[in-house]
């Protein structure tokens, strides 16, 4: 398992400086924000060329919403997602993290035919059939992210994301496991990880209080043991707050995580 960190958490006046700092702290990769990332393509390629740090993933950044009630918004999200998948392949990243919808449903409840969540699941599968084919074609992966109940009504647990992957039956769509959200939604984090198994292609790291690991009560050691058990060997990226000087806290976090990964 390799360590990554979201770009916005890293000190530095340029991407090159951020990559240099990450290497010095002991990280393996950086997770880039997806918003208008295509406008930075040359900058990213140039910075990567002089660094040992890789791009682990691209985090969301789509305009629109995949599960909007408006077709124009869905189409915009699909177009941006396809573009980001192409960039992920170009940068050598695992894939693009996708949250299908934030907040409440935007489409109506059509019970008894189907409720809103059931309609959303069916709609997402239909939309992702096309996007998944594109991901396969360009050599990238859609990473579905379950969020806690306070951020979305849709897809809160790993098993719900796995269900979407199973319906799509494609290597182009997998899931991301986030320790912060799992701490809220999963009754047993290691058990949930083991059940999701091969579908986990990326991990987000934050402690129970959404600070860097080591400042809360999340059981990372047991979670990491479960990831090893299912054969996970990809990136785990920090997505959290830093309670102090990043020059101190980020290297300290790397040492903490490596200790938790040790047998």
- What is the oligomeric state here? single chain
**Mean pLDDT score:** 96
- What are the segments in which pLDDT stays under 50 over at least 5 consecutive residues? none
Structural class based on helices, strands and sheet pairing: alpha/beta
Can you say what the CATH homologous superfamily is? Divalent-metal-dependent TIM barrel enzymes
Main sheet: strands, sense, barrel = 8 strands, parallel, barrel
N-to-C span: 13 Å
CA-atom Rg in angstroms: 18 Å
- DSSP strand content: 5-15%
Helical stretch count? 9
Domain count: 1
Q: CATH class, please?
A: Alpha Beta
CATH topology: TIM Barrel
Helix content estimate: 40-55%
What do you see in this structure?
By secondary structure, the chain is α/β, with parallel strands linked by helices. It has one domain: TIM Barrel (Alpha-Beta Barrel), CATH 3.20.20. It has 9 helices and 8 strands. Strands 1-2-3-4-5-6-7-8 form an 8-stranded parallel beta barrel, surrounded by 5 helices.
Please give a handful of descriptors for the protein shown.
263 residues, alpha/beta, globular, single chain, 8-stranded parallel beta barrel, TIM Barrel, 9 helices, 8 strands
Write a concise synopsis of the structure shown.
This protein has 263 residues and is an alpha/beta fold.
Fold topology:
Elements (H helix, E strand, L loop, with lengths): L1 E5 L8 H11 L3 E5 L7 H9 L4 E6 L11 H21 L3 E4 L17 H23 L3 E3 L13 H11 L4 E6 H7 L3 H8 L3 E6 L14 H10 L5 E4 L7 H16 L2
Parallel strand pairs: 1-2, 1-8, 2-3, 3-4, 4-5, 5-6, 6-7, 7-8
